[in-house]
Amino acid sequence: MPDSHRETPGPEALNDAIRTLWARAGEQRRSLTADEQRIYQVLVAAWAEATGAEQELAA
Fold first, then answer.
1. Distance between CA atoms of 32 and 26, rounded to whole angstroms?
2. pLDDT value at position 6?
3. 58 or 44: which leads in pLDDT
4. Using the 8-state DSSP alphabet, how is residue 2 labeled?
5. How far is the CA of 23 from the CAs of 10, 11, 14, 32, 44, in angstroms?
6. Are 38 and 16 contacting, i.e. CB atoms less than 8 angstroms apart?
């Protein structure tokens, strides 16, 4: 059974994951694979949601 109480990573952790994904591909001098592109899209969407939520709380 999935843990529905799992904490969502914050914007900094998500940003680090995005940078790591790009760095790995860059070190290997290649584009992101199809799987990495899907992961990237999910990470960016989660980051945008997390930063939007933080801005709403600050307002």
1. 9
2. 72
3. 44
4. -
5. 20, 18, 14, 10, 15
6. no
C-beta atoms surrounding 46 within 10 Å? 17
Cβ neighbourhood burial of 14 (10 Å; 0-12, 13-18, 19+): buried
Encode pLDDT of 14-51 as tens digits: 999 999 999 999 999 999 999 999 999 999 999 999 89
Question: Global pTM?
Answer: 0.73
What string of DSSP letters covers 6-51?
PPPPPHHHHHHHHHHHHHHHHHTT-PPPHHHHHHHHHHHHHHHHHH
